[in-house]
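Input:
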Amino acid sequence: MTKIVKTTANILFPFTMIFGLYVIAHGHLTPGGGFQGGAIVASGCALLLVAYGSPWVFDHIKDKRLATFESLGAIGFITIGLLGLIFGAVFFGNFLAGSGSLFGTTPATGSTLADFNTGGVLPLMNFAVGVKVIAGLFVIILVMAYASSIKEWS
Amino acid sequence: MIEYIPFIAVVAMIIIGLYTVVFRRNLIKIVIGISIIESGVNLFLIILGYRDGGVAPIFTSLPPGTSFPEGMVLPVPQALTLTSIVIGVAVLALMLSLVMHIYRKYGTLDVQKIRRLKE
Amino acid sequence: MTFLETLLQQSPVLIIATPLLSAFLMPLVSRIHAKVRDVFALVVLGVTSCFVGLLASDVLSHGPRIYIFGAQNLSFPLVRILFEVDSMGVFMAIITVMLASIAVVYSWSFLHQQDGLDKYYTLLLLVVTSALGMELTGDIFNFFVFLEISCIASCALIAFWVDEGEALEAAFKYIVVSSIGALFVLFAIGIFYAQYNALNIATLAHLLQFTFLDKIVLAILLVSLGMKAGLAPMHMWMPDSYGRAPPSIILIIMSATLASVYGILRVMFTLYGNVLTTSLRFSLPAHVIIGWILIALAIVSILIGVIMALVQTDLLRLIGYAGVAEIGYMFLAIGTSIVALGTSYATVALHGGLFHILNDALDIGLLFLVAGAIYYVTKKRSLDDISGLARSMKFTTVFFIIGALAVAGMPPLNGFTSKFLIYESVYQVNPILSIIALLGSILLLAIFIKVLYAAFLGPELPELKDVKEAPRSMLLAMGFLAVFAVVIGLFPNLVLDTLVKPAATALLDHAQYISMVVGGL
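Output:
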């Protein structure tokens, strides 16, 4: 792509990243969450792909590593569910909510400022889903772009 | 009458999608048809979720005067829609990658020309 | 509370969580060694089977259990995801884990030269998870999610031999049919939610009024789940994908298909159980009309399956059409029991139908594995290219004969019992139906005798001189299915009394299923 496109992508990419990560991190407070934020981050990566071309991205990022991250995200999600089974007696039990430790504050009702340190296991689950969705969507885009950029198939 | 328009749109989208899937011969268009059906169903769920005078169920931005939790909208239809969108992304990606492989194999996207499995 | 009791209480979720977690662990595990990966898949399914066994022994003796996600007790409004396990769900779960374990053992040698096996096992465990989820869940939206997971994962598995154009074509056909079906299930769920503000199957069944919209929903659910189950007008994906997927995968896809049959049973008997006897127009009760529609579709399935199997030359595709006919027998029994709801032979028909689900899994599964073994040693699909295999493949020949006789419903084997129950009860409704069903069985026998002569007996072909017997793990997998078929055939009451009859009772006694949830609110 031209220099204009590359420069624009360079400027926009960090903002997209930060916005996506914000949506993931604040999933328990505002509309959004793991999937939505992950989709935003992955669309930022797709911007890089368009600007720099898939062979360049393919040299810098290995799809095997992304697949590992995807597995880790899913494993993390189910592990949190199983931890709920161990500490909270039911699968997906919210054992952190109201405990006072990590993400354990009980929020005040009514029109207050959002307290980030609430929600129990929900923020952790959002992180796990976010990792999975970023890796999964990016690997889909990457492999498809790479496959369609090859003129002659084997 | 005005409140029926979204439902008419839902039915129209589903019928357009089904028409595309059944009568179009291009594989990409079949994939688009399935996406249209999916959008129609998602729109349907979103319409169900609309409550007149309801408040978004965000815990900390409850307007003064509304009681908790009766004044808030139960966000089940929205959750259903999100789940359905996530699944839709996976189905779409899978179908497009199959189409890519089919194109690579046969060099065409016409359903009539790639039909090897008959009888 | 002892450890075993805790385990029992948590087993509904552990049945789902174990294969799901292992599915995502699989890419990491398979980096260690290929052998570790193969064993890991079987160990996971073994652990899952243990949980299923534990749950089954409790549910069969103490009645249904519910499991609430994320909370200890039920509370209003009911937005929690619930698992509700009764004898019917347990019966299907046993079939699923059995088929999956056998498929894993079979694929050890069948696929050992292929690459991408880590993804294969991941997808296999995902299909198992989704089938088990469909069978154990008590929430209709959850059912849809598992249905979609099974669509996606099965489609990717059908396209496993990605270099063959036909496999891609079959996979595309499968995903178009099943994703449209699943989307319409979601549409139906939306209509339910709009009317009753509930997604729980028991709550919905309690509230159901049988309004005009509910009739539309019933039609949508029957059509879309019937599509996924391979019922007659939309059966065409079934022989395509069964004929082109690796045979070890067919067992897994079959378990997902049977889970859709379970979905229809759940919709008919539990969700609409309260209102089935309401009369529609001309003082005809709803169950008579729906039952006759199902019977008509079932008869068409049997005829299409048998007639199309008659003209096939591709062995896997031929068995696929036989599978369509078997699905027809199941629905013939289900339709009969719905038509005759309340009479004694309705119960007999339901016993036959449910027993036939198990027998179809065993017999058609065995035949697919035999066809896969033939493909493995000869690399040929068409019946015209293979001949005289009985000399070199003695065990496989024996397994084929067992499978063929069982599918045709010959006396000492398992297919006989269920088909006999079906003929007996269908005869009470209309003798002609019984004759058609019997005729279908005879034709199936004729078809498989033709295959036996073409493939196993007959002159030995020169290019098949150095063919050897199939590898040991494939023989082991086929042996398991054959032994089950023979044992169930010799002692049918062993399974009929312990599993099938409680399952039928659980379906017919929908009040108990409903009161488990609604009574607790």
